[in-house]
Amino acid sequence: MEDDNYFMKRGFNFIYTLSGDTVFSTMTVYDYLWNTRPPFLNQARKFVPGMVPSDNVGVLKTMYEDHEDHVNVRHGKRYGDDQFFMMNTYEYEPTVPGFSLARGDCFASIQNSSEGATYPQNLDEQSVLIYWRKTLCRAVPLYYERRVQKGALTGYKYVLPDDSYDRLPDSDTDCYKGQYGLLENGMTDTSKCSH
């Protein structure tokens, strides 16, 4: 809000004061995870409901509120080992939930990614895994780092690069840059897929 105009800041302060909310609050772990309802959000919903899609921002409530997922994946011999269980669509869209090509949103693709429970077969040291989790709100590449020995089994360790959440050079293709201004490297706007 630092760069917002005077009226936006005054409106925010008015709603915050009217709500009686405080910066710090005491709550149970359960409430923090499943039932966080700041008075400010309740008050803001009355004035600008389009900007406040939910008054419960419990961490796990937000991440897992939709318990039914519709995932279309590739399976069968015709796709071979390298496309085993790769995703085509999630909730009938080729994009991260909350992004819709029909609405003209950015193409935040989940295509050719794995949801993390299964991966392509016969991986090698050149394989790049595209990993998508609803809680991350984006598909990210995992790159081979090293071999790992566990008893008689040899496995490969794949890691997320440190710059995975940095801004893209072309901000028009950066679906997570922020709706109200460019976020810093390492930050991701998850508002579309969280609500």
TrEMBL record:
Primary residence: membrane
Subcellular location, record wording: Cell membrane
One GO cellular component, as annotated: plasma membrane
Molecular function terms, GO-annotated: scavenger receptor activity
Transmembrane helix is among the record's keywords: yes
Keyword annotations: Cell membrane, Glycoprotein, Membrane, Transmembrane, Transmembrane helix
Family matches, as InterPro entries: CD36_fam
Family, as annotated: Belongs to the CD36 family.
Function: Plays an olfactory role that is not restricted to pheromone sensitivity.
Name the UniProt record assigns to this protein: Uncharacterized protein
